[in-house]
Amino acid sequence: MEDKLLNVNDLSVGFESDDGMFMAVRDMGFAVRKGETVCIVGESGCGKSVTSLAIMRLLAEPPAHVSGEVLFEGKDLLKLPMDEMRGIRGNQIAMIFQEPMTSLNPVFTCGFQISEALIAHQGMTKAQARERSIELMRMVGIPEPEKRFDAYPHELSGGMRQRVMISMALACEPKLLIDDEPTTALDVTIQAQIMELLRDLKRRLGMALILITHDMGIVAQMAEWVIVMYAGEEVERADVRTIFSNPLHPYTEGLLESIPRLDSDTNKELPVIEGTVPGMYDMPKGCKFAPRCKRCMERCLNEAPPLVTLDDGHAVRCFLASEGREDSDA
Amino acid sequence: MNFAKSRKKAAADLESQATSQAVIRTPLQQAVRRFRKNKIAMTGFWMVVVLVLFVNIGALVTPYDPDAVSLFDINATPTAEHVLGCDSLGRDLLTRILFGGRISLAVGLLSAALSMALGSLVGALSGYYGGVVDSILMRLTDLVLTIPSLPLLMVLGVIFKPSPTFLIIMIALLNWTTSARLVRSRFLTLKELDYIKAARATGEGDARMILTHLLPNSLDVIVVTATLAIGNSIIMESTLSFLGCGINPPTASWGSMLQSAQETMASAPLTAIAPGLMIFLTVLAFNFVGDGLTDALDPKRDLA
Amino acid sequence: MRGLLKYAAKRIAQAIPMLLAVSIIIYALLQAMPGDPLDMYLENPSASPEAIEAIKEAHGLNQPVYIQYLDWLTGILTGDWGVSINSQRQVIDVIGERVVPTLQLTATSFLLALVIALPLGVRSAIKKGETFDNVTTPLTFFGISMPSFWFGLMLQLLFAVTLHWLPSAGRYSLGGPGAGSVLDLLRHLIMPSIVLALIYIASWTRYARSNYLEVLGQDYIRTARAKGLKERVVLYKHALRNALIPMVTVVMLDIPVLFSGAVITETVFAWPGMGSLFFDSLTKQDFPILMGILMVNAVLVILSNLLADIIYAALDPRIKY
Questions:
Q1: ipTM of the complex, rounded to two decimals
Q2: B213-to-B43, B182, B183 alpha-carbon distances in Å
Q3: Contact residues, C window 189-248, toward A, CB-based 8 Å cutoff
Q4: Percent of chain B with pLDDT over 70
Q5: Which DSSP symbol is given to C197?
Q6: Can you give the pTM of this predicted structure?
Q7: What is the pLDDT of residues C165-185, one digit of tens each?
Q8: Binary contact (C227, A58; C-beta < 8 A)
Q9: Are C260 and B148 in contact (CB < 8 Å)?
């Protein structure tokens, strides 16, 4: 267990609202080992981003209320004084956001924004930081980095901006990098390039990766360990092979069925999961997935299934899986 | 048939069970709820109600004629008969405040309403038709904005010695630009939305499009700007009347009552304090309400 | 820099037709003024018809209106702003001697408002929902709801009439020890500048607050925090730079409004600036002076618009001109 870099236990995040507390994330628990890639998968609105922001303590409290434990190298980040947390952010844990278009400050040059982390965490001088920033920009594949150093964000394309974000995140060679849908806002070809780049960098720098995505294709390509989230809860977690070969939760099955495959019949419609993730006002009281589940039973409507761990750390939150799948056909 | 029906019913039951404790509100209900939870807004709301009732009922009940001069009561200090005392002509101050309040409130409310109507019309035409109509109307708006409005109103006030009606029109004519710009930009946003495009594609006429689709969806902007414009109009009227370019004596308005305040305030401070305090409280009340409406209706909210 | 100059030239060219249109409107309205400015000569029994004719001739009052307008316009452009009907002096001289007092008053108020409003707005945004904000925000409502002339009256009543701490009006004391000194000027300046500044203190605080709050909600602020920057750097470097840009525009556009606001303040406090000159000329129907002041104000509006655009363009790297 020594190789655990991050250990998340019972992480819950609620948001205050006019109508009381809305639980965005409930009792999340997972671990990330050194150098490992963990993917958190789910539809938009299921609490993936909130989880990552809670780990970084980037949620404004209030309205957010975060409870549980986030152990990073044994230290609970949630209890750390803000000063120490700042020393970890951008230094040991870095984050890349979904929106490269709005995540860079428009009034500062890209180079300045990369240098900032170096000056803050590594005590570099401006000149040293400039040199290192250009090096980083070259590493993430930005052409003519000396020239781009002085460019403002609006002068670069979305793909280039995301590369700037990545070089900013990598500046201090973090042990853990959190990517929140880093390619959602980008063209498909750029997406592939960025993913390739991340995989390559991860191998070279030996850092761990938490990758948040809704794209099962990316999961297959990148993940070693997978967490499937639905409506603020983990519904299934397993290593990537198990998830693809033996998915136990109907939601995971649904996600997998909705991937187009080369060998699938092109005349047949691609299956979809009907409906949408429940919001604050229509949260079911039993299993959160019940209203959309093809295998919904009477019991699922009234009783919330617990997360049950089977073998090899494969865990699932479904009565069908925890109490024998065969029963359901009867 | 029956079978399909029962299956539908089963599905509905399932759904209603699954969506237990669901709280669903219409946007209007949400807005009302937000407004009522806002302490400042509710304070403003009740202040407006009390002020309007006080001024209108008071003016009916008071035993004095607001314009009756009484030589025995010049600058009289407050007594049981004259609760706030009398002014430099011996007129009952409270009575003049009540009557003046009716004029000031009427001028404020009506000129805000008129400028809103004018601004919405200009904004609607400009936003809906675009092109040449838009550039002409927007240049016109810029032009009105370039004219220094207070000095110009002063000049107009001296030229025309305005009646209250005329004053309402004058203030409105210089105050419509804000609402015109806001309604125009709302229309521009709305025009890009699919359901508006769809309605247009069905061949509905321009007037119908504007009146049934675009204007109702701009009501939040209009209501918020109108409420904030009331306070502005009241201040403008009182300033003009104070300077002698608005409501003219002997007609009382809160502003005109302050015209000679500078000379009398040393001997009868209430003649300077009371009318101004009324203006201040009234404007404050409308601004509270306006701010509450801004928060409740959130006119900048995402329309999509 | 050259691009900026070219942009400025283009904007000035656009402003000229606007100014002409404003001048026509103002001229037409003032022409409609009742009460011939010659009334006071006509009422003078010793004025002969020839003398009246001569005065009319001298003021060009016998010409058709559009000729009078064109004459006036050429005059404005060549520095001949006409002659005050009331004092028989050159309008440009009469207005000219009022410029310094008005600038003293408006500049003091402007700086006062800026120095108070910006920190107040930013701080109440940072402390949103806390005591500081809960006190400041209602106070700004008082500021925007206060009729400035009444606020002036109340200050006079309290500090001049009742407490005798400050002089009630004027720019200098008429006599006595220290009359005419800088200290004397400052004592006279306190109340009018506070009165004139009040509405801007309130409205700029509100604007700064809401604008700063909007910036704090932006993605790039989260990025800055995720980088592990100190909160001070996030708030006062990353957020403030962005919040200041639109703030500059709002402040610049309020400058001409500040000048027309001076009409009220100067009248209440008998401050001998352009505002009180305007009010006096209005009661005396001194048309050339009114025209001159209104035009100065219109030029100011267009100039501040222009300046706001140019400063915005210079501050925001995203703007191409």
A1: 0.83
A2: 34, 17, 13
A3: 218-220, 222-231, 233, 238, 241-242, 245
A4: 86
A5: H
A6: 0.82
A7: 888 888 888 777 777 788 888
A8: no
A9: yes
